[in-house]
Design goal:
By secondary structure, this protein is of the alpha/beta class. It contains 15 helices and 13 strands. It has a 7-stranded mixed beta sheet with strand order 4-3-2-1-5-6-7, sandwiched between helices. A 6-stranded mixed beta sheet has the order 9-11-10-8-12-13. The structure holds NADPH dihydro-nicotinamide-adenine-dinucleotide phosphate and ligand LTNE7NMQ. NADPH dihydro-nicotinamide-adenine-dinucleotide phosphate binds next to helix 1 and helix 15. GO terms for molecular function: homoserine dehydrogenase activity; NADP binding.
């Protein structure tokens, strides 16, 4: 009899759908390990789909959900469907979390700010939580502390570096008593892709649109270009180290002017019209750096209870200067790694990689399931 990990998925966009596909395609692998990931519910911003009679959703239903969401962004007529506006309601949260009264992992693959409160309630019920969404861990301490109190019952590897083992590495260092002096890193797949492509003379606006197509950007790419997505990653690491700081405390360089802000234009309008305004200034910045033998990289520095994120000129031959595509690079300086830092490098964005990171986190929780 396989050990069943019951899972409720919040968010059925690029990452959520890829997670469902990974779950279906790894059935045999997990069966050989005596495991089964049982998807009990899939939730988007409008609806909740549950299996009939509180059974898990079978693979046909999961693939049907992926296809229907991809095609017309609607949940299909499968299982039982409810309106998910009730998600914020306590009773509904309970119902969603305990459809069968057994332990459950709730995976947050939304990009929602609001969902933090519901997750805090879910954490109070002592469920396991896996996050790709950075917002619940970077909002108020009321929400953060309740999730963090789950300790080993929550995982958030994909919030920083997609599937790179950044959080796991930090936890190992912290738990073994090493002291972290400084973290420096290129933490954005989107901005890594954009900055390295700029070196080939392509226009900023074209590259950002490609990054969106490739699934690297946030739903609104201004979250990436404004530096907030990187600021959140830096804050997640800082809070993991025990720093009681907030998003407002992070020093952020925004790459677009206030006239292109979300409150003044929609994402669509920004991509179609606003973005091109940044082509010339970015081209000039790249040229000026090149004249000094440097390239541009969007870098996060976490040191002395302060986080800073922004463009830094890097020598072309440096480790950061050599980064290409969506690759992230994280250098961790500690007591044990003082002169030569511990380095983590690799693809840092994309639905496939991110969803694989979420699935690995879910499987890591298997010991909580009898
Ligand atoms: N792509 C990447 O490389 C990486 C992404 N991430 C994170 O993964 C998360 C998901 O990204 P992505 O898949 O690209 O985002 P999408 O915009 O493609 O999908 C988001 C999904 O969340 C759903 N949603 C929004 N609000 C709610 C809510 N209140 N309750 C339930 N569902 C809700 C949306 O519903 P609807 O479909 O109805 O609109 C949608 O299905 C983000 O937080 C992102 O930062 C993390 C690391 C890397
Ligand atoms: N938009 C993010 C996705 C992962 O967090 C990025 O570009 O790194």
């Amino acid at each position: 009899m396989a050990r069943k990990i019951q899972l409720t998925l919040l968010g059925c966009g690029g990452v959520g759908r890829q997670l469902l596909r990974h779950i279906v395609s790894t059935r045999k692998l997990h069966e050989d390990q005596g495991l089964r990931v049982a998807v009990m519910a899939v939730v988007d911003s409008k609806s909740i789909v549950l299996g009939e009679k509180n059974e898990e959703l079978d693979d046909t239903a999961l693939l049907e959900i992926c296809l229907a969401k991809e095609k017309n962004n609607q949940m299909p007529e499968t299982g039982k469907t409810f309106l998910s506006t009730i998600l914020m309601d306590d009773h509904a949260t309970f119902f969603l979390v305990y459809p069968t009264g057994r332990p459950l992992v709730v995976a947050d693959c939304t990009a929602s700010e609001k969902i933090g409160q519901a997750l805090a309630e879910i954490a109070d019920l002592n469920c396991c939580i896996v996050l790709a969404n950075k917002k619940p861990l970077t909002s108020s301490f009321n929400v953060y502390d309740r999730i963090a109190a789950l300790n080993r019952r929550y995982r958030c590897e994909s919030t920083v570096g997609a599937a790179l083992p950044v959080i796991a590495t930090l936890n190992r260092l912290l738990n073994s008593g090493d002291s972290i002096k400084k973290i420096v890193g290129a933490l954005s797949g989107t901005l890594g892709f954009v900055m390295s492509r700029l070196e080939y003379g392509e226009s900023f606006s074209d590259i950002v649109r490609q990054a969106k197509e490739l699934g690297y950007t946030e739903p609104d790419p201004r979250d990436d270009l404004g530096g907030m997505d990187v600021a959140r990653k830096a804050l997640i690491m800082a809070r993991l180290m025990g720093w009681r700081i907030n998003l407002e405390d992070v020093e952020v360089e925004c790459l677009y002017p206030p006239s292109l802000a979300p409150k003044l234009m929609s994402t669509m309008q920004f991509l179609k019209e606003g973005l091109a305004e940044l082509d010339l200034p970015m081209r000039n910045r790249v040229k000026e750096a090149a004249a000094r033998g440097c390239v541009l990289r969007y870098v996060a520095t976490i040191e002395n209870f302060h986080c800073k994120v922004g463009i830094v000129e890097q020598p072309q031959q440096s480790a950061l200067g050599q980064l290409h595509g969506s690759d992230n690079l994280v250098e961790i300086f500690t007591r044990c790694y003082s002169t030569s830092p511990l380095v983590i490098k690799g693809a840092g964005a994309g639905n496939d990689t991110t969803a694989a990171g979420v699935l690995a986190d879910v499987l890591d929780l298997q010991d909580y399931f009898g």
